Every structure is written in structure tokens, then in C-alpha cells.
# Entry
Amino acid sequence: MLIIGERLNTSRKGLHEAVETRNEEFLQEIARKQAENGANYLDVNCGTRLQHEVEDLPWLAKLVQDTVGLPLSIDTPNADAAEAALSVHKGRPIINSISAESERYERMLPLVKKHNAGVIALCMDDEGMPETAEKKFKVASKLRQRLTSDGVPEEDIYLDPLVQPVGSNQAAGMAVVNAIREIRRAFPNTHISAGVSNVSHGMPARKLLNRTFIAMCICAGLDTAIVDPNDSDIMQIILAAESLAGRDEFCANYLAAFRAGKIA
Ligand code: THG
# Structure
């Protein structure tokens, strides 16, 4: 599983202020911990910094990459902010995200090509955010088709079925699980990514829901996740679920983690 660390997001407590006041040490510590705990990419999102995102996102991207060597998931719908962050990025980023909304697609595609980047493709279009598995699958297929015909290699595409809070729609969890299953069946070689923690917004004991949900998603074919890598339980559940789903040959990763003392 490709792990994208979610913690550098100004919607989280204290982060908006830390970016505003350029509190480097605080943010560097968040980057270091996630890297230490096994993140492969770090998501950077300054979405709450409305008027400042174009300056803040490249500042944060550079700070993080100067601190840990990891590549970033540049998380913004704002193409100007994405472009500014990409211009300071080292290595191969993931652009988070493109969608089937006409304007967003047209603005983000040239950035994906220019930077030879991976790209998360959100299952939404000019009609809005589909709620059912069938509609999510339709938008995913359309996005994959468009991206590949525009020259983006399949292995650089991360289809995201868009996780919504189960607290406001009882059907939201299974809509994503079923969408993942259909996408995986139709496109065995395309990545599927999800912002797992969205599922628990507004609920108590969020980590319990996030942990359970990721196992369900892995069972259906998820191979990339935006999660909190500092939650050692979720990291262990990912290893267990991948072994149980037959996606860890000889359970090698599970056994290696156990030997390394990472499974308690
Ligand atoms: N898809 C894509 N990108 C995304 C999302 C997605 N980026 C943003 C978001 N969704 C994923 N990132 C987060 C980050 C933090 C939280 C949820 C999703 C979050 N954090 C809580 C907090 O900070 O208060 C609690 C975390 C905790 O319990 O420890 O809710 O879907 N492509």
C-alpha cells in the first residue's frame, strides 16, 4: 500500500496558525514523525489559507522537502497554488488533484504533463459529487479514459472515489467500497486512492471507524491511502488486511514488520 501522510493540512488544529506564523519547527516535526512512521508521500494542503495559498503552499512544500526527503502530494484545487508548489518540488510529486470538472481538468492537465507527475483523479464532474457506487464508477472510467488518451500513463493515475462522512449519509461507506470493487475489476492496473479519514467526520472515536473502513477498502482493491501514519494501529491493520486480501506475497511485508517489532 502506498501511504500518503495526511497531517500537514491547515484544516487540522493549530496548523492554520502554524503556517500563518511560519512556525517552521512545529511543521517540521509533523513532517519528520510521518516519515519515521512509514509515509511514502506527504500530503500538503493549505486550503484554509484562502487568500494566501499561492504563497503558502510552495513555502510549506519547500520546508517539508528540506526536512525529509519524501516526495509530496500537492493537495489543492487551485492550479496557481499547485503550479507554485510544483516549481519548488524535488523528485516526482503527486498532484492532488484533477477531476472531471471542465475547468479544473483543463488547468491541471498541463501541470501533470509538464512535471511528469502522478495525479489523483477525484470522481466528480460538472454535475457535482456522485453519491452512488455506479455513478462514482462512471466518473472514474471517464477520467481514466480522458487521462490516458491525453498521454498520462495508467500507472501514474490514482482514481479517488471520494469518501464522504458516514455520519451524514449512512450509505456513504459502502458506495465507496463498491465503487472501488468495480474500478478494480474493470482496471486492474490503475491505482485507487482514498482519503479514508473523511468517513468519520463528525463521529466520536474516529480512529475506530477509519481503521475498520480501511480494511473494507483494501478488501475491495484500494492500493493507496491518505491516512494518519502516526496511528500505529491503522498501519498494522493495513499490513494485516493486505496479507488477508492476498496482496502481500508470502505475507512477506507482514512478517518483516513483525520481525522489526512493528506489530505489537
Ligand atoms: N481525497 C484526496 N485528498 C484529500 C482527501 C480526499 N485531502 C484532504 C482529505 N481528503 C484527506 N486528509 C485529511 C486530513 C485530516 C483529516 C481528514 C482528512 C482529519 N483530521 C482530524 C483532525 O485533525 O482533527 C482528526 C485526525 C485524527 O483523528 O487523528 O479529519 O478524500 N485526494
User: Anything to note?
Assistant: The two ends are 20 Å apart (CA to CA). The longest strand covers residues 2-9. The chain has ten helices and eight strands. The first helix runs from residue 15 to 20.
